[in-house]
Amino acid sequence: MHRFHGIVLAGGSSSRFNGDKAFAIYQSKPFYQHAIDLLTPLVEQVSLVCRLDQTNVIADQRVSVLTDDDRCRGEGPLAGIYSAMVVTDAQWYLVVPVDTPFMKKTILHVLIEQMDPTYDAIIPCIDGRVQPLVGIYNINVLAVIQKQLADNKRSMHQLLTRLKVKYVSFGDKESSCFVNINSADDFYRYITNKEG
Ligand SMILES: Nc1nc2c(ncn2[C@@H]2O[C@H](COP(=O)(O)OP(=O)(O)OP(=O)(O)O)[C@@H](O)[C@H]2O)c(=O)[nH]1
């Protein structure tokens, strides 16, 4: 068993985006590569969990490319976390979504510093808003996730109510790191408009 594994969640349907968010380009690099760059120096191994149709396009030697387990394929971020945990062997999992291209290592370092074996998860909060897609989860949560999925409860927030969570607050200054690109409008507002 290794200690620390990274998970990039990339298998969403991008239904609010014009195209596949995983391949959207920011600073000349696809979003999925930003996420891999972020995790690679921090963990022992990285898994990227995506849809079947993405597997031929994702090219990065640094990661294991996985798809969702048959039992929960396409059932949301919880399915992605479950699918990586069930085929890997680690104590802790550092999770990032593919659509937060401004996330910084410094934020993840703060979460790592807060790791504590008496908790199930270490999760950031911005202005009291919980951000469960970026976080550290103990392997203990696998059984809880499995039960949630079996009960058709796919909400990450709902998962957190079942766990012992250490919340880590970040200030306003860091809120830009958590910006989520969901729509073409978000892409224009935060990327095209700024990059010119
Ligand atoms: N592996 C996997 N990842 C997922 C799944 N659903 C969402 N994700 C990822 O989880 C993160 C957050 O998901 P959403 O914001 O809902 O993104 P999305 O589902 O692609 O977008 P919408 O269809 O617009 O909701 C993104 O990084 C997605 O790629 C899934 O079923 N499996």
UniProtKB/TrEMBL annotation:
Its cofactor is Mg(2+). The keyword Nucleotide-binding applies. It comes from the Bacteria. It is an enzyme of class 2 (transferase). It is found in: Cytoplasm. Its EC number is 2.7.7.77. Keywords: Cytoplasm, GTP-binding, Magnesium, Metal-binding, Molybdenum cofactor biosynthesis, Nucleotide-binding, Nucleotidyltransferase, Transferase. InterPro entries: MobA-like_NTP_Trfase, Molybde_CF_guanTrfase, Nucleotide-diphossugar_trans. GTP binds at residues 9-11, 21, 68, 99. Residues 6-161 form the MobA-like NTP transferase domain. SUPFAM superfamilies: Nucleotide-diphospho-sugar transferases. GO terms for molecular function: nucleotidyltransferase activity. Mg(2+) binds at residue 99. Its main location: cytoplasm. It catalyses: Mo-molybdopterin + GTP + H(+) = Mo-molybdopterin guanine dinucleotide + diphosphate. Belongs to the MobA family. Transfers a GMP moiety from GTP to Mo-molybdopterin (Mo-MPT) cofactor (Moco or molybdenum cofactor) to form Mo-molybdopterin guanine dinucleotide (Mo-MGD) cofactor. The N-terminal domain determines nucleotide recognition and specific binding, while the C-terminal domain determines the specific binding to the target protein. This is Probable molybdenum cofactor guanylyltransferase. It comes from Gracilibacillus caseinilyticus.
